[in-house]
Structure formats: structure tokens, C-alpha cells
Amino acid sequence: MRIAVGGFQHETNTFAPSPARLADFERAGGWPGLTCGEGLFEAVAGINIPIAGFVEAAGHRYGHELVPLCWAQATPSAQVTEEAFEKITGLLLDGLAGAGSLDAVYLDLHGAMVAEHQPDGEGEILRRVRDRVGHDIPVVVSLDLHANVSPEMFELATALVSFRTYPHVDMAETGARAARHLDFLLRGGRAAARAFRQVPFLMPLTAGCTMVQPAKGLYDLVAKLEDDDVASVSFNAGFAPADTYHCGPSALAYGANQARADAAADLLLDYCLEHEAEFAGTILPARDAVAYAIDRARTSNRPVVLADTQDNPGAGGNGDTVGLLEELVRQEAEEATFALLCDGEAAAAAHAAGEGARTRIALGGRSGLPGMEPFEAEVLVERLGDGRFTATGPFYEGSRMQLGPMACLKIGGVRVAVCSGKIQAADREMLRHVGIEPTRQKILALKSSVHFRADFEPIAEEVLVAASPGPNPADHLLLDYRELRPGVRLMPAGPVFAPETVS
Fold first, then answer.
1. Strand 139-143 relative to strand 104-109: parallel, antiparallel, unpaired?
2. How many contiguous H segments (helices) and E segments (strands) does the chain have?
3. Is the bond preceding 495 in cis, omega lying within 30 degrees of 0?
4. How much is the pTM?
5. With contact defined as beta carbons under 8 Å apart, do 360 and 377 qualify?
6. For residue 28, what pLDDT band results from cuts at 50, 70 and 90?
7. Which helix (H) or strand (E) holds 268?
8. Is the dihedral of CA 199, 204, 209, 213 positive or negative?
9. Model confidence pLDDT, tens digit, residues 430-486
10. Interstrand relation of 414-419 and 406-411 (parallel, antiparallel or unpaired)
11. Phi first, then psi: what are they for 257, rounded to 5°?
12. Confidence class for position 502, pLDDT limits 50, 70, 90
């Protein structure tokens, strides 16, 4: 069978300070930049992303003919600009127009994209794809675990297949599962029964980690629900910092038996409601988190890890707030590392000074968030790097990083790993590239919510979530929602969103 293959990924935090411009999609960073046509499959090969897993399974395992369209992604941020959305969607559609006769389409999408002019990015992409290819051929889509699935996405796609791990160590595996389901359909498999349920509360990102309860039990249940009658089951935890009507978790089931599909989706919804309060999670103020980490580190042989979740570049932050860094320096932490500070100006200043130099540099604070200022400090430039290396951890595995000039700066007992490109600290090689061995640190403060756990939790004595300034508040009551559907609880077991109360 001939299958068109493409993708367009963005996770949109509508409260974030910076939009996703076309240049952000064209630029390579943790993953390849905008790529179209013949070079697409080579560009993504061997990387832990869904399209790579789909190509390997559908092309090599199942023997289908794959037609490359285009693929693009940008680091999470505020809305995708209209220019970027129209350009990349246009490339996808142009590829479909020139693909000839097709038996199916596979798309690697995120599920929580918001464009400046389209609140449901993936719904609009799927609408345009259906206008181009019709409604008779299968269109199977892989989604991020944090997809905010809309009814339009559910209706327009033949099947939506989502990640099952957070940290997302199964991205390529999800692409392979999408290939398996599509192959099943192309060989005459029956999956006309479809079920979609929306969960009536928003989940904080850190509480959705599938390595701990209650999310672990939820995703264990997802895998158990697939059988001969229910071919595919997914649960999406949603992406809460997105002010859109259909923001929030959802359950999806596809199979040959409608009653069984409905039952599977209902079981997942019931699990969420039964464990709702547990999904609220726990977060410590930066001052308390640092004090605890310093005390714990005195008797530990392994690093205590602090997650700087509220400025996570993987959730729309710019990775340049310095509240947690200031607290580490103020409390005179020793053998501590703060990573990654995404600040091209600071990296350039370090490179200008050179290795071994002592100089004064303004660190971070460049996003323009209210009350946020750069942290000026006398630093020792310990190590410089070009930002080019290959990631080895389970999340970014195989990614050929291009993070621009990097540096390790030392302030007293605190090291700061600085990069030029925006990316979350989720791979040990990011620190090793500038001479920091993660296993030898007493404290690791990482700008990430959960993905860091895949590579850093195995070496950690303990993991704490810290509250420091940033555009991804763990408490959704701090966000000024305007567009949510009425009746959604802003936090697990928390107050209900009522649009009439919005001024």
C-alpha cells in the first residue's frame, strides 16, 4: 500500500512570552528542523520521535511504500504564528497533491497546537487534509501524551494513537503502534467502533508522570484494555497551560465492538475521577526546596534533583528565569549545578571572555516576564562548548543536538550550564558537553517538569519539584483562563471554571 507520511508538531502554552515563528521550525535544535521530500526519512532515522518509529515499522516491517511529505517541530512556546502555520500546513498539502494515488495517510502531530488564527491547530490541519484526500482512506495520527483532543480531531482522524509514557521514552514506539494499527486497517481489520471521553478537570504536568502514582496505574490500565474487540486505546493527560475550549485530558478507544470501546473509555474516565485529588501533586517553594536539598546532600552519595518546572522550555518557558539559581547562590549550595539556562547573550559573553577567565555576566531574565530581572554575578568560565553532541538518554536518544554556543560558569559552589538554543534539561550529555559530570554533583537543578526523570532519576537520591518564576504555574489558579469550556475544574478537586466570572 502507498502511505503518505508527514508531521507538524508544536505544544502551545498560550500564557508563554514568545511565539513560535517560521524560523523556529526551520532551525534544528534537539530534533531536525523543517524537512521536506526525499531527505525526510534520513533526517529522522534513529531518533526517538514518532515519525521515525512509524517509518521503520510501516516501511521495513510491514512492507508498505512510504511517500515523504514534510515534518517540522518547534520547542513549546506561545502561539504558532499565522505565517508559520500556513507555510508548513501548505507544504503538507502540496506534498499530498503531488503524491499520486494513496491508500492511507500518517501524520505525526502533537495535539496541543494553537495558532494565532486557529485555536485548534490539529483540527484545522486534519480538516484540510480530509478536504484534499477525501473521507474514504484511513488517516492515522500519532499524538503526544499531552494532547488536548477536540471532537473535531476525533471525528476527522480514523484513529488517534498517543504516547503512554511521561517522560516520553516511547515516542518512536508510539509511531510503530500507529503503523501497526494502520496496517491492521489496510488488511481489512475492523475498528469502526469509536469512543471519546473528556475528563472534567485539568492535570498539572508533574502529576502526570507515569513513573509514579496515580498516573502509573492509569497507563497500566490503558495497555490492559486492548484485546481482539478493542484494537487501540489511548489516554491523553492534556496540556493545561493552553487557554482553549477543549483543553484537558481525554480517553480514546477504537475497535470492532461499540459496547467494548465505550466500556474501555469509561473505565479510564472512572479511574481519573476516583483518583482525582491525587493528581494535584506536590510542589515546594524554591527557598524550601533548596534548603531541603542542601541538608539532604550532606548525607547522600547521589545528587538531589530539583525540577524547575514553572520555567520548563518543554512547556513553553524560555528557560531563562533565575529564581532557583539565586536561591542556590544565596544559600551557598556546594557542588550544585543549575541547567540549562537558555541565554545566548550570556553564552556569547562567556565565549568572548574565554576559558579560565573571571568576568561579570548578566544571567537570564530576558523574557520580559513581570518582576523578572537578570542575575548579575562574578563568574569563572570553566568550560566552553559548541552545543553539538548526540544525546544518549532515553528521552532524547539519538538526537543530534545543535544548541549553539554553550558554557559552564561557576559562582561560588554553584555551576551554571548555559546554552544558546531553547531546550529542556533532559539528557546527561547536555552537562557533560561543558565538563559537568552529573553523577558527581550533590544538587542538580534542572529546567524540566518530568522528562528529566528518564535520564536523571536513576542517578538521583531524591527528586523534588520546586516553584520558581515562570509561565507554567503548577497551580492553574494562577492562570487567567478565558476560553475553557464551562464546568472544567481548574485543578484536581478544585474550583470550576465559570466564564461569567471572568472580567
1. parallel
2. 14, 20
3. no
4. 0.91
5. yes
6. confident
7. helix 258-274
8. negative
9. 999 999 999 999 999 999 999 999 999 999 999 999 999 888 899 999 999 999 999
10. antiparallel
11. -125, 115
12. very low
User: Do residues 490 and 481 make contact, with C-beta atoms less than 8 angstroms apart?
Assistant: yes
Tell me the pLDDT tens digit for each residue of 186-208. Answer: 999 988 999 999 999 999 999 99
Q: What letters, b where the CB count within 10 A reaches 16 and e where it falls short, cover 138-173?
A: bbbbbbbbbbbbbeebbebbbbbbbbbbbbbbbbbb
Q: What residue type is 366 in one-letter code?
A: R
Grid cell in block for residue 334: 556546594
Count of residues in the chain: 503
- At 249, the amino acid letter reads P
Instruction: Spell out where 133-186 has E strands.
Output: 139-143, 159-162
Looking at this protein, which amino acid is placed at residue 374? P
**Long-range contacts of residues 95-98, Cβ cutoff 8 Å, at least 24 apart:** 95/4, 95/6, 95/36, 95/37, 95/67, 95/68, 95/69, 95/70, 96/4, 96/69, 96/129, 96/132, 96/133, 97/132
Q: Which of 201-205, 228-232, 281-285, 486-490 has the lowest mean pLDDT?
A: 281-285
Cell of 329: 547562590
Partnered with residue 233 across adjacent β-strands are 253
Q: Name the band, by pLDDT with cuts 50, 70 and 90, for residue 152.
A: very high
Q: What is the CA radius of gyration of the chain?
A: 22
